[in-house]
Design brief:
Layout lengths: L11 E7 L15 E6 L2 H14 L6 E6 L1 H5 L10
Antiparallel strand pairs: 1-2, 1-3
Length: 83
């Protein structure tokens, strides 16, 4: 539980890799996934995602994703799409 005025920690994972096909979410090589990091809120995860996506703009098969880990850990919590 957050102490004092600290915001609630809502973990987000940012990762990416090269897809097998443009319309799929199947990765070409799981051993080459780029695990960017775990972030305490959506904004910091979004900023990391955006930076990595811009780095790979020349590779159409490269995709980065944000996983809302807090929703997996606590599915009973709210459904705010940006949390």
């Amino acid at each position: 539980m957050p102490e004092g005025n600290e915001p609630k920690q809502l973990l987000h994972l940012v990762f990416g890799g090269e897809l097998t096909h443009l319309g799929s979410i199947e990765f070409r090589d799981l051993n080459k996934l780029d695990i960017v990091g775990v972030y305490p809120n959506y904004k910091s995860a979004y900023d990391a995602w955006r930076a990595k996506a811009q780095e790979s703009v020349d590779n159409a098969h490269m995709r980065y994703f944000i996983v809302h880990m807090h929703r997996l850990l606590d599915p009973e919590a709210g459904d705010d799409p940006h949390a």
